[in-house]
Amino acid sequence: MARGTLFLVVGPSGAGKDTLIAGARAVLERGGAYVFPRRAITRSAGAGGEDHEAVSPEGFAARAAEGGFFATWRAHGLAYGLPGCIPARLESGRHVVVNVSRAILADVAERVSPTVAIEVTAPPEVRARRLADRAREDQADAARRLAREGAPVPDGIPVRRVVNDGTPEEGIARFIATLTEADA
User: Fold this and answer.
1) CA distance 100 to 103
2) What string of pLDDT tens digits covers the 184 residues of the chain?
3) DSSP assignment of the chain, as one string?
4) Distances from the Cα of 6 to the Cαs of 9, 94, 98, 164, in angstroms?
5) CB 63 within 8 A of CB 51
6) Contacts with 181 (C-beta within 8 Å, 6 or more apart), sequence order
7) DSSP β-ladder status, 78-83 and 69-75
8) The predicted structure's pLDDT at residue 1
9) How far is CA 170 from the centre of its chain?
10) Taking CA 53 as the corner, what is the angle to CA 50 and CA 59, rounded to the nearest 5 degrees?
11) Opening angle at CA 159, ends 158 and 165, nearest 5
């Protein structure tokens, strides 16, 4: 059985990563070839945005100390963790799609092959509107997120880009096409 591909989804706040991942999950997960593990985040479950596992900072730290995460990082004052089941899913031939920070790309790509980065982009005005619509951050936090420039994807990691500047349906279709083409 062939090993699955790890798809690491990156992009700036407001690019629509969570919407695209949720839409792809609804279409691709049924077939069994793709899995979309939920991230653990030290953010309340009702904060809006992605479907995540809400954990307390103490619970997160304990789980990390026990080796319960495949990868962790901090961003925007929160801790994020990918579940420890990812290697087993890949070994079983399933493709894994996860939203990550660019900060962990090199480390994860060194540990897992094949890995493909999918960079989701959108124009600044579209991102600003999306951040305002989701109302998860105050205006100052949203402005900081918009001002952040993402680091480039490290050399040696294949990268596919998805421009998400239209309707959710258009973006989801582009994202699914990118996943399935990269897998071919």
Assistant:
1) 8
2) 578 999 999 998 888 898 999 999 999 998 899 999 999 999 876 666 667 889 999 999 999 999 999 999 998 789 999 999 999 999 999 999 999 999 999 999 999 999 999 999 998 888 878 777 765 555 666 556 555 666 778 889 999 999 999 999 999 999 999 999 866 5
3) -PPPPEEEEE--TTS-HHHHHHHHHHHHGGGSSEE-PPPEESS-GGG-SS--EE--HHHHHHHHHTT-EEEEEEETTEEEEEETTHHHHHHTT-EEEEE--GGGHHHHHHHSSSEEEEEEE--HHHHHHHHHHH--S-HHHHHHHHHPPPPPPPTTS-EEEEE--S-HHHHHHHHHHHHHHHH-
4) 10, 9, 8, 21
5) no
6) 160
7) antiparallel
8) 57
9) 19
10) 140
11) 170
Whose structure tokens read 């919407």? 19
Question: Are 132 and 42 a contacting pair, CB within 8 Å?
Answer: no
The two three-digit tokens of residue 159, written as one number: 């990268």
User: How far, CA to CA in Å, does 55 sit from each of 107, 111, 161?
Assistant: 24, 26, 31
